[in-house]
Design a protein that fits this description.
With 248 residues, this protein is of the alpha+beta class. It has helices at residues 2-5, 16-25, 48-62, 231-247; strands at 35-37, 98-102, 106-111, 117-121, 138-144, 147-153, 179-188, 191-199, 208-215.
Length: 248
């Protein structure tokens, strides 16, 4: 595999096949899924509640045209979120780098893609009430030996769990019962083993877990200035208006 994935240090490029090959092939896991539990590598079935919510979301999405307004386009196209910030942090198709910083009262995870920043509190302050919700939840971290454990709750019902939010009509969204537990373990000088468990009895019939190796790289986190060059969204809406005018 290495001969097909090798690239020179002075000509590194972002490529999903290379990312997967380096993270799985060289680690000798050869896994074809990020999911390690269930052992078949697939998400558990949706609960009746989860199925009903997905059907309602599809119904609401079908009631409007995909280009009726900016609000009917995806969060990624609107430069709001790519969905990779998590938790859990699912790698995007490119720009999968992140920077981890630790202060006395917070751990900060800065994602390169779509400029998202996670703030993980380290103090023992109580969580806010259930009515206070975030798309990425409320994260609290602690150390268990050499492993950094993060528990996140207080999610909304709009949290996306089908990777990058591109096709809104097929997304799986969670319930407010969602809880995510993440574990970061430094296994060698250049590798963190990232493990996560998702527990949402309002969406899936059982908890499920995944695992991703994170490799240390050299270099900065580059600015992802999505809004500066986001001509695509304006052109999509403009073209839709032209089509509507021609039809009339």
């Amino acid at each position: 595999m290495d001969q097909f994935l090798a690239q020179p240090k002075d000509d590194i490029h972002y490529d999903d096949a290379i990312w997967q090959g380096e993270n799985y092939g060289k680690q000798t896991t050869l896994r074809t899924s990020l999911v390690v539990d269930p052992s078949n590598g697939r998400l558990p079935p949706l609960t009746p509640e989860g199925q009903a919510r997905a059907a309602e979301r599809a119904r609401r999405g079908g009631a409007t045209g995909p280009s009726d307004s900016a609000q009917t386009r995806t969060l990624a196209e609107r430069c709001i979120s790519w969905g990779n910030v998590g938790p859990p942090m699912i790698p995007p198709t490119y720009y999968a780098n992140m920077q981890i910083l630790q202060a006395s009262d917070h751990v900060v995870i800065r994602h390169e893609l779509m400029h998202d920043v996670r703030l993980i509190r380290l103090d023992a302050a109580p969580r806010p009430g259930a009515a206070v919700q975030w798309m990425a939840g409320d994260a609290r971290g602690r150390w268990e030996g050499d492993t950094f454990v993060v528990e996140t709750a207080n999610f909304t019902e709009e949290t996306n769990f089908r990777g990058p939010p591109r096709t809104t009509r097929q997304d799986i969204t969670t319930s407010t019962q969602l809880k995510v537990t993440e574990r970061f373990t430094l296994v060698d000088q250049d590798t963190i083993r990232y493990e996560f468990t998702v527990n949402d009895p309002g969406t899936w019939t059982r908890p499920w877990s995944g695992e991703i190796p994170m490799r240390r790289i050299e270099g900065p986190i580059y600015e992802y200035a999505c809004h500066e060059g986001n001509y695509g969204l304006a052109n999509i809406l403009r073209a839709a208006r032209v089509q509507e005018a021609n039809a009339r």
